[in-house]
Amino acid sequence: MIKINKQFFFNVLITYCFLFLIPLTGQSSEIQNLDGIWFICEYSISNNPPNDNCEMLDNDGFLVEQGKISHLKIKNSQQEGCRGDRTGHCFKDGTMGLKAKKRNIGNFTIGSNWVEVKHLTCTQRFWFKEYENFWHSWPDEKKCFWTRNKEFYVQRYQGELKIN
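Request: output the structure for the sequence above.
Response:
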């Protein structure tokens, strides 16, 4: 039997929600197209924005393709200096030769500046805002029992990535 860490699952759900609102709140045509690769900012700690403008990325990310989202996990980072002094749990934006493992997540419902996720008979809304180097997401005040009071910061990844 495979055990899934509940905290990890909720982090994935919240970030998943965040990623699907981005095209509706931006102005440029690049922002209007959400398809692509997104990673969580490594140094966004305790609901605070990243202190490095999201230059260091977490090894957990997302692939968005035509309205569907998949979780990505970088498998070969050798980066040192990640949170908790864990080597390989982060990487610098633009690192070459990265490989990721892909796991499908599902679909979404999106509004003008929010996204909703239905999970375990409860629908949670998350709100979003664009900043210069990253996007910020937070849950609505009305929370599902599975929703954590955690804010997320993510960035679109422009580098090459081998996905399997």
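The two ends are 23 Å apart (CA to CA).
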